[in-house]
Amino acid sequence: MQLRYSFRVYPTPGQRIALAQAFGCARVAYNDALRIREDARKAGLPFVPSGKLSKQLTAAKKTPERAWLAEVSSVVLQQSLRDLDSAYRNFFSGLKGKRPRMGAPRFKSRKDNRHTIRFTANAGWKITHGGKLRLPKIGDIAVRWSRTLPSVPSTVTVVKDAGGRYFASFVVETGTDETLPEVAPVVGIDLGLTHFAILSDGTKIESPRFLRRAEKKLKKAQRDLSRKAKGSANRVKARVKVAREHARTADARREFHHQLSTKIIRENQAVAVEDLSVKGLARTRMAKSVHDAGWSAFLAMLEYKAARYGRTLIRIGRFEPTSQVCSQCGVKDGPKPLNVRVWTCGACTAVLDRDINAAVNVAKAAGLAVSACGARVRPGLVPAQRGETGTHPKPQPVTTCRQAGISVL
Hints:
Elements: E1 2-10, H1 13-42, H2 50-60, H3 74-95, E2 115-119, E3 126-127, E4 133-135, E5 139-144, E6 155-160, E7 166-173, E8 186-191, E9 195-199, E10 204-206, H4 210-226, H5 233-267, E11 270-274, H6 278-281, H7 287-293, H8 295-308, E12 312-316, E13 342-344, E14 351-353, H9 354-369
Helix pairs in contact: 1-3, 2-3, 4-5, 5-8
């Protein structure tokens, strides 16, 4: 499994100038290649391959208009072309229905607040014995190492964010000896807004609401920004202050997600979550609270950590009636308004907490998908292909362990 390890770096003023030049050259190489392909498309010509773009980039370095491209590492420019290929590949895959649809590649602006360049192994970069990051034509950059890398990194990406901070992001291959010892618990998680997560064992984790807590500082910083004249140096300083306030909020939320997801993965052998439609919920009146919670990022962390440490993550369908079914007797008595937090089952007279009951039902619904012997006994739902939308496929037969000839101990 490949993972990214990001560390804060502190370039000197001269190195910042060199990095700014590298950012600009990578942007120009990307835009030139995109313009060549767009001109070919408008003229009805075939798609320009990457090899031809690389040759044209090499030839452009020898012209007076683009001679300054030779002042940066050639690997940075070639990787910019690879990024353009990835953008086209994702765009075409979206048109074919292999992934969510996304727009066509667009030109990069020099006014963008986030810049990146990437160095591969053949660029000659390395980590020195003194712990500095040596980049070609840039120099040795001081790095604040917060942890050790598990293996030798294959690539490094230098990032400058909107707040003016610099980071070095390493891609490493994790080892095969990271599987955690097996534990007994299986937990279901119900995500919410009042409580960020409710576990099936009755644990309720309060929602930190990082954006709500930072709104006062953000309001003041944005008000100061709006009063600055456009194009002035003071407006640039005010914009950086706003970006840093947003960065602090995002960093705090990310740290909370990491700590909680690691704790859940370490303490439970299997984790069941509900596949929420975050995009749909973000179009409601609760949009700000939904974005502040960051459910998608949290579920993504659970997914890759479960794969890394040998745990099982099960996603159940978003249409499972987890809030309508009694977790004690299984009777479904219909939907309930959101203001009903505690209710009494009419069949077994059990007093149920809405959130805990939903978390227990999430765990039970996940248990129906996997048998005790670990074999699939009910096929999971597969999204319909784009060409099959509106059709009515035949229901798949349910296969039990006994029919499959599997003995359950």
